[in-house]
Amino acid sequence: MIEGPPVKPAPPFNMKFNLRDAGTLFGLILIVVVFASLTPVFLTAPNLINILQQSSINAAIALGMTLVIISGGIDLSVGPTAALSAVISASLMVAGVPIPLAIVASLGVGMMCGLFNGVLVAYAGLQPFIVTLGGLSLYRALSLIYTGGNPIFGIPPEFRALTNGDLMGVPNPVIIVGIIALILWVVLNKTPLGEYILAVGGNEEAARIAGVPVARTKVATFVISGCLASVAALILVGRLGAAEPTIGNLWELDAIAAAAIGGASLMGGKGSIVGTLIGAIILGALRNGLTLMNVQAFYQLLATGIIIIVAMLIDRATRGR
Amino acid sequence: MSSDRLRISGATKTYPGIVALDDVTFAVAPGEVHGLLGENGAGKSTMLNILSGVRPGDKGSIAVDGATIPIRTPLDARAAGIAMIHQELQLVPELTVAQNIFLGRPMTGFGGTIVKRHEQERRARAVLADLDPTIDPSVKINTLKVAQQQIVEIARALIDEAKVIAMDEPTSSLTPAEFENLASLIAALSARGVSVIYVSHKMDEVFQVCQRATILRDGKLVGVVDIANETEDTIVAKMVGREVLHATHVSHATMTPVLTVEGLSRADVVMDANLTLHAGEVLGISGLVGAGRTELLRLIAGIDRPTAGAVKVNGEPVRSHDPRAAIRAGIGLVPEERKREGIVHARSVASNMALPKMDNYTNAGLLRHGHLHKRAESVMTDLRLRPLNVRQPIGTFSGGNQQKAIIGRWLAASTNIFLFDEPTRGIDVGAKSEIYNLIERLASEGNAILVVSSEMPEIMRLSDRVLVMREGRIVADLASEKITEEEIAYHAIPRKEQITA
Question: How far A271 CA lies from chain B's nearest CA (Å)?
C-alpha cells in the first residue's frame, strides 16, 4: 500500500531554507522584476526601503498570525486589538506618562486581549474563529467607548522620533519587525514552544496524548499575536502622530493573506516565519508598484485578490495531488 | 476466461521511485468471494484504487463480464458495476440512511428539481429488508452502529446494481458477532451472483468467507490459491516470502506492584475498575469492542476525566485527567489509532519522539537539535526503525515503523509503565512479530505492561495474566494456566440474565 508521497530524504534541521520559502521568494522576485520593467522608479533603493517600511505593520501582525495559524487557530481580532492598544498608549503619553511605560502598557493591552482570546479557546473550548470574531467587536467597541469615537492627538515628538527614525538608512519599524521575525524564527524552530505549536496544529489529540501542554501552547500563540498587534499599533501611532479608535480595519485579512502566501496552512501544523515575512513584502510591493503606476485603488484591491488566489493555486499545484 | 465477472490484466502502476504494482492479473468469478492478500505495501490498495478509478493504472486493462471497460474515474467504476466499501466508511453522518444511499444520484421528480424523499426511503427499505430490517432508512447515519453503517454502504452498492463489491478491511471496527453477521451477508450476496473482493489482514476471516485468494508481495503477483488447499501458515508464508516462527510465551513478571488502579470509573463506560500491575508483567485486557478497554487505558493515562477512583504509581496517587502528570509518573500510552492519536504526521521521528520530555533536549531554553537527533538515532537504532532516518516526517513511515517510533517516544521519556492499545492494528504480519518481541523485551527489562487487544492469538502470546472486560467492568482475572480462548470468550460475551440483572 502506498501511504502518502514517496519517501524523500529530509533536509537537515538547522538553518534549512525549505523549498516552499524558495517558492515564495521566487514570487517576490517575479513581482519585483515585472514592476521594475514597468516603472523605473520601482527598483531604486529609496523605493525598496519604502516598500519594507510600508510592509512592516502588516508583517508584524502577520508574524503573530502565523504562529496562531500553525497551532490550528485564527485571530480575527488583531485590528481592534491594535486600535485598543493604540488609544490607550496614546492617551497615556498625552497625559504625560513616560514613553517606555506607555509602550509597556500598550504591549500589555495587546497581550491581555490575546490572553482573553486564548483562554476562551484553550480552556473554554470555543472555536478560535468565533472567539476572535467576538473579540473583534469587543475590542473595537472598547476603543470607541474609551475615546468617545474621537482621535487622540498630541503624541510626543520623542515617541514619533522613535518610530520614524532610522539606523543607517534603514527605518526603525523595519528593524523592529526584522528583530521580531528573528525572535519568532528562533521560537518556532529552536524552542520547545515551537515544537509544541507545530505538534498541536499538526495533530492536537496526538499532541495531548504525548504530553504536550496543549492549552498553554494555544494561549501562548494568542498572547504573542496580541502583543504584535500592539507593536503594529505603536508603529502606526508614531507615523500618524495620532491614535484613532478606528485603525486596524481589515488588518486581519491582510495578515492572513501574508501568512497563507508564505505557506501557512489554515488547517494548522504548517507555516513559515520567513515565508510570512516575504508574503507581507509581496503584498507591500504589489501595492507600491501599482501606486507608482497610478493604478486606481479599486484595481489595486483586484490585483491583491488575484495574487492571493494565484499563490494558493500554485501552492496547491506544486504540492501535488 | 470470458467467464470472469471481473478481470484486470497486466495492471501496472508506478510512483516516483516505487513500482506499486507490476504486471498483475487479477480475476474474480461471478458470485465468488475472492480474498486479496498481502502485507502493507504489497499493492492491495493500489489494486483497489485502480479498480475504483481513484488512481488509474499506468498499464493494463479492466474487463467486466468479458467487455473491456476503461475506468479512469470513480464514476466510470460505478457505471461498470464496481462498488468499494472503504475501511473508513464514506457516509455523511448528519444525513439519513436513505439520503446516504442515494447520495450523488437522488431519485428526483419535476425535471430533476425535487428530491423524492419518500420514494427513496421506500426503495431503501426494500433493499435493507434483505440485509438488516432493523435499520430505519429515515434515521440519521450517526445514530447507527458502525456495523449497521457498513450495511448501509452495502445497500448503496446493491441499489447501484453493483456486480462486484470490494471490501477493504471491513471488520476493523466490528465485534466478532458483527463479523459473523457480515460473513452471512457476504454469503447471501455471493448467492445472488454478486462477486466480493475481500481485503483483510485477519486470516481466520479470510478462511471463513473466501473461496479463493490472490496473494501479492512487493507489487507482484505471488499466486492465486484455493483457500481449501491452504492453511494460515502457508498463506502467511506466501505473503511474507518466508516462514513466520511462532514463539512461545516467557514470563518476566515479578511480585513488585508498580501500578494500582482503585475503583476507577467513568460514567457507564468504565465502572469500578481495580487492578494491580507488577514490574516485568504483561497484563492483557481482553473483551469485546465497546467493553471499555480503550477507555480504561485512557483514564489511566490521564486523557479522559474519571468520575471516581484513583491511579497510583508506586503507591503515590497520580493527578487524574492530566496526561503530563501521568507521563511524569512513568506512564506512556501507545494508542490504537496511530494516525489520529499517535503521530504528528508532518513532523520528524525525532520531533515526535521528543514531545513528552522536550526539556531534556534544551539548553537555556533552546532546543539542541544535534543532541536530540543523536538520542533519537540511538533509540531508533535499538528499535530497528526502517529506514533509520530520524529527520524524516513520521507520516512517511509504514505503520509498523510508526509504531516503533511511538514506542521509542516512551523509551526516550524513561517510561516504565507501557499501555498498549491494539499494538498491531494495521501492521504487517512480518512487523507484528517485531512488535511482539519488543513488548517481551520491555517486560524482560522490568517494565510493567498493559496490552489491550481484540486478537486472541496476540493476547495469548503476550500475556502473563489476562483481565476480561465486559460492559465497562473487569469481570475476570485469569492466571496464565487459565488463558484459553474459550475461557476468555465465556467471560467476554454478555449473557441475557446479566443484561437484565
Answer: 12
